[in-house]
Amino acid sequence: MKTKFGIAKVMLMISSMLLLLVIVACSESEESSSSDSNSNGDVAKLTVWLWPGMGIEEQIEQYDEEHENVEVEIQLAEFADVHSNLTTSLAAGSGAPDISAVEVKGINKYIGNPQHFVNLFDLGAEEVADDYLDWKFKQAQTIDGEYLLGLPTDIGPQAMAYRTDVFEEAGLPTDREEVAELIQTWEDYIEVGKTIKEKTGKALIDDAGGLYTVVEGQGEKKYYDAEGNIIIESNEQIDYAYNLATEVIESGLESGFEQWSTEWGTGMTNGDFATLLAPAWMMGFMQENAPDASGKWDIAKLPGETSGNWGGSFLTIPEQSDHPEEAYELIKWLLSPEQQLVTFERNGNFPSTPEIYETDAIQNFKSEYFSGAPVGQIYAEAAKDVSEVLEGPDSITIEEVLKDAIIRVRDGQGSPEESWQQSIDELERTLGR
Amino acid sequence: MSTNLQVEKKSKTIGIFRKPLTQEKKDRIAGYLYISPFFILFGVFGVFPIFFTAYVSLNKWDILGTKSFIGMKNYALLMGDPVFWKSIGNTFSIWFLSTLPQLFLALVLAFILNQAFIKGKDFFRLSVFIPNITSVVAVAIIFGAIFGENYGILNYLLSFIGIDPVNWTGTLLGTHAAISIMVMWRWMGYNSIIYLAALQSIPKDLYEAATIDGANKIQQFFKITIPMIRPMIIFTVIVSTIGGMQIFSEPLIFSGAGGGSFNQGLTITLYLYEEAFVRNNFGYASAVAWVLFIIIVIFSLVNLFITKRINSTE
C-alpha cells in the first residue's frame, strides 16, 4: 500500500515536471523569436498602435532589435478604430498603448483634454522642436503652448497621379512637365476630363470626395477660424471645392469607385480612371493596393495655385504608459530627420523635417512605380507652399458629413443644393449636442 | 426599557454565532453561494451598466472631459432627430427582409435535411451551421466584395441576364437587401438546426398515415410538420426579433460607421455606436440605448401576447 502510493506520487511529480519543462520551453522560444534581448529583467515592453500604411513598422522592428532595453510590440488596427480605441482606453484609465499614432484631425479632439497624454516638453521635446515644420509642430500643442501631445510624423503635400496609357489613348501629352502645363487650373482639369471621357470612355477621377478634400485643403482656412468659430458657410474655398466635386459627378467624369473600398485597388490597376489626386502618403497606398500597375502611373504638379495639405499624423505617448522615457526615445529616433527620410524612401510618406528637403537624397529620389518620376523633388516643391491649416475638435465629423453630401449627389439622392443643405442641417443638429 | 431590548437583541445575535448552523441553513447558504457567480457577474456587467447608462443619458459627456448635467435634453433632441427615426425604420426594414424569408427557408431546409433519401446527413448538417460560427467581419468583407458596383461578382452574374449594374451600397433597397442577405446567410443554418431537432421529435407514423391517405410531401409539410413544430417556430421568431433589433456588424462593415451617405444602412445600434465611439457624444448615445431598450421591451411584450394567444387556441 505504501509503495503503491509512492509510485503514484513519483509519477505525478515526473509528469508535472515534464509539463513545466514544456511550458518553459514554449515561453523561451517565444521570447527569443520576438527579440534577442537579455533576460535580466529591465526590459521595457512598449506597445505601439498604428494603422496599416504608415510605413514605419520596419524601422520600429529595427529599433527593437538594436536596443536591448526595450521590447516593442506593434498592434495594427483600422484607421478609425485606432482613434476610437484610444479614446475609450484613455477614458477607461487602462488599456492604452505606450505609443499611439493619432491623425491631425484626431489630435484636435484630444487637445482639449491634454492630461491624458504625457507632456513631451517634460521629456525634452523642446530641443527637437527646430527639426520640424513650425506649423506642424504647433498642431499637437495646446493653445497656450505649454503642453505637447505628440511628435509629427509625415505631412501630406499633394500632387496629381495620372495614367500615362490613358492619357496617350486620349491623344494627350504624357510627359509630366507637359501635363502640368496642360492642367494648370481645376477648370483645365475638368476640360481634360471631358476629352478623356470622349476619346476613351474612361473616368477622370476615382472619387469626387477625394477631389473635394484636396481642393478644400488648398485654401488658407478649413472649418475653423483662429478663434475656433466654425466658418463652413462663409469659407469660399469649401464652396468652390464642393461645386467642383459635384460638377465632376454631374458631367459623368467620376468612376464610382469609393476610396478605400475593395474594388478601388482593382480600378487603380486596370486604369479605370485617368487621375488620382495623391498626397505623398497615397503613393504607399497605391503601391500596396495596385502593385501590378507599376510603371503605368506618373506624377505631376497638382492643378490650382497651391499644393495644400491632406492629413499627416503624430505619435503620442498616453499618460498610462509605464515607460514614457523609453517610448519617447523610440519616437524621437523614429521621427528624426534621418529616419523620416528612410520612411519616405520606403513608403512615400513625406517628412515633416524641412532641413532634408533640399538634400540630394530627396531631390534625386525617383520612383519606379511612378515611371521614374522625381517624386522627391515634386513633393518637396509642393511642401514649400503648405501652410498651417487650423483644425478643430469636430473636424472629423464635419468632414464626414460634408463628404456625405457629395456621395448623395453621386447616388442620385438629390440636387447638389439640396444635398448641401441636408448636410448643413445635420451638422447643426450634431454639433449642438 | 430600551436598554432591556438592546440586551435582548445582543444576546440573540450572539446566539446565532454560538449555536452551530442547522443543516437546512447550511444548505441554503451553499445554494446561494453556488448561484452567486452568475448574479455577481450579471450585477457588474448587466445591471450596473443599465443604470449607469441611464445616468449618463442625462448628461453631456465626451468621456475624456467632465460630465455636465443637462436633464432630459438628450431625449428631447432624440425625439426631433430625423436620423434616429430613419435608423428605426431601417432596423425594422432589415429585420423584416431578413427574418421572414430566413425562417421560412430554414424550415424548408430542415425539412429536406430530415428526409430519408438524403445521404451524408452529418455533412450537410455541419455545412448549414458553419456560416453561423464564421467571423461576422470576415463575412461582411467578403459580401462587400460580392456586392461591389464595378467588379462585384453579383453584378457580373446579373449582366448575363441583361440586368444593368446595381449600385448596392448607394441605394436604400440595395443596401437593405444586401444586409438582409448577409444576416440570412449567417442565421439560416442556426434556425434550421433548431427546426431539424423539432422535426425529429415528430412521430413517424403521422407521416406514414398521411402517405397512405394519399397526401403528397407538400401537403404533409403544411398539414403535419408546421403545426407540430409550432413552439419551436415561436421560439425562433422571438430570438430573431431580439437579434434583428440589434443588427450591427453587417451594416457597419457594409455601409461604414455613418450607415452610408443618406444613412441608408444605419440601424439603431449602429447609430448608437457612431454617436458614442465616432462622435463621442456618450450622453446622446446612452439616450439612444435606453430608447432601444424600451423598443425591445415593447416587442417582447407583443411577442408574449401573440404567443399566449397561439397557445390558448391549441
From TrEMBL, chain A:
<dbReference type="InterPro" id="IPR006059">
    <property type="entry name" value="SBP"/>
</dbReference>
<keyword id="KW-0175">Coiled coil</keyword>
<feature type="coiled-coil region">
    <location>
        <begin position="53"/>
        <end position="80"/>
    </location>
</feature>
<feature type="signal peptide">
    <location>
        <begin position="1"/>
        <end position="27"/>
    </location>
</feature>
<dbReference type="InterPro" id="IPR050490">
    <property type="entry name" value="Bact_solute-bd_prot1"/>
</dbReference>
<protein>
    <submittedName>
        <fullName>Cellobiose transport system substrate-binding protein</fullName>
    </submittedName>
</protein>
<dbReference type="Pfam" id="PF01547">
    <property type="entry name" value="SBP_bac_1"/>
</dbReference>
<keyword id="KW-0732">Signal</keyword>
<feature type="region of interest" description="Disordered">
    <location>
        <begin position="413"/>
        <end position="433"/>
    </location>
</feature>
From TrEMBL, chain B:
<feature type="transmembrane region" description="Helical">
    <location>
        <begin position="228"/>
        <end position="248"/>
    </location>
</feature>
<keyword id="KW-0813">Transport</keyword>
<protein>
    <submittedName>
        <fullName>Cellobiose transport system permease protein</fullName>
    </submittedName>
</protein>
<feature type="transmembrane region" description="Helical">
    <location>
        <begin position="29"/>
        <end position="52"/>
    </location>
</feature>
<feature type="transmembrane region" description="Helical">
    <location>
        <begin position="168"/>
        <end position="187"/>
    </location>
</feature>
<keyword id="KW-0812">Transmembrane</keyword>
<feature type="transmembrane region" description="Helical">
    <location>
        <begin position="126"/>
        <end position="148"/>
    </location>
</feature>
<feature type="domain" description="ABC transmembrane type-1">
    <location>
        <begin position="88"/>
        <end position="303"/>
    </location>
</feature>
<dbReference type="InterPro" id="IPR035906">
    <property type="entry name" value="MetI-like_sf"/>
</dbReference>
<dbReference type="InterPro" id="IPR051393">
    <property type="entry name" value="ABC_transporter_permease"/>
</dbReference>
<keyword id="KW-1003">Cell membrane</keyword>
<keyword id="KW-1133">Transmembrane helix</keyword>
<keyword id="KW-0472">Membrane</keyword>
<feature type="transmembrane region" description="Helical">
    <location>
        <begin position="282"/>
        <end position="306"/>
    </location>
</feature>
<comment type="similarity">
    <text>Belongs to the binding-protein-dependent transport system permease family.</text>
</comment>
<feature type="transmembrane region" description="Helical">
    <location>
        <begin position="92"/>
        <end position="114"/>
    </location>
</feature>
<dbReference type="InterPro" id="IPR000515">
    <property type="entry name" value="MetI-like"/>
</dbReference>
<dbReference type="Pfam" id="PF00528">
    <property type="entry name" value="BPD_transp_1"/>
</dbReference>
